[in-house]
Amino acid sequence: MRGSIQKRGRHSWRIKYDLPGAAKRETRYATVRGRRQDAERELAKIINAAHNGTLVEPSKTSVADYLHQWLDGAHGLAGKTAERYRQLAEQQIAPHLGGIALQKLRPAHVAEWHAKLLKAGGKDGRPLSARTVGHAHRVLHRALERAFAAELVSRNVAHAIRPPKVEAAEIEALKSHQIAPMLAALSGHRLEPIAVLALSTGARRAEILALRYGDLDLTAGTLSIKRSLEQTAAGLKFKSPKTARGIRTISLPAVAVEALQAHRKRQLELRMMLGQGKPDGETLVFSTIDGGPITPNGLSRDWCIFVQVHKLPAISFHGLRHSHVSALVASGVDPLTISRRIGHANVSTTMNVYAHLFRQVDTTAAAAINAALKG
């Protein structure tokens, strides 16, 4: 394969080359701005890519057009994930990078994009957090990785630029002295069994709302997580956990068993009054009055109102999961057991998310061994 370079302007060069192996001669052109050496390097890259079988066909597809195509065909994404990806693509990626041809996107564009988002990428021109910019970067990276695999681009330029560093935020969790007042305020409230279960097991909001009575064994004192409830703009849907570790059986403390027994009794009385009959194995443990699922967003809203009305620590419902882990770490439970109990894919995820809690325990351990060594 050979090519030639022609000067087109003061700082512009035209590269001409023929596609190798074509039954009929196919000539391609590319324009390079800069010095002749830049054009020579580009031609060398093209020739090398052609010999290696990695030369991509020229395309005028824009970043925005490709993102739409990719998202429309991204069937492997969970509903909530796909919804969030589309939101990030439409609000943070397309307005800034959408007009650039996919094959002309460069690392410099990505770096400049990060800077714009951090400065004024939010609503009404407000700065975006490094965490949100990182989420948008990962969407772009994943899309470009698919484009690379499909040989639409010669490399993933998002891989060359790291997303902005996110400062570790302290996990919101109840302190040990705050748990008793929280339970006292919950006594007799309709949210009591749900909150007690979250505090007792570390289960996620969506996992708790997907529980059926067939998933409970109150005699053995165990709970099996087999699915979760997903809420998107399209509605509610039960789905399997993302990883094998998400399917798990959790031992229940006595306080959780008692709360669930009392809840089942109240629910049975209500069902009998409404003529719905006794709950079976498929009946939702927590449901609306007609037996349908409670929406995850609705639960979070109701919890927020409850906390405000009772002037309790401003902690989200998800914070109850963190409170569970915090209590386990403080009690000296090993990271692997904690990871399996809360359904993390691996123990490294647990260590990363709750690093500050383990550091505190390690400091306490060092002080304890120091005291023992001093006698």
Key structural traits:
single chain, 375 residues, mainly alpha, DNA polymerase, domain 1, hpI Integrase, Chain A, three-stranded antiparallel beta sheet, 14 helices
What would you note in describing this structure?
The chain is mainly alpha-helical and 375 residues long. The protein has three domains: 3-52; 63-160, DNA polymerase, domain 1, CATH 1.10.150; 176-365, hpI Integrase, Chain A (Orthogonal Bundle). It is built from 14 helices and eight strands. It has helices at residues 36-52, 63-73, 79-97, 107-120, 130-149, 176-186, 192-201, 205-208, 254-274, 296-309, 318-330, 335-342, 347-353, 355-374; strands spanning 3-9, 12-18, 27-33, 216-217, 222-225, 228-232, 235-239, 248-251. Strands 1-2-3 form a three-stranded antiparallel beta sheet, with helices on one face. A three-stranded antiparallel beta sheet has the order 4-5-8, with no helix packed on it. A hairpin with a 2-residue loop joins β6 and β7. The longest helix has 21 residues, at 254-274. The relative contact order is 0.08. The mean pLDDT is 89.
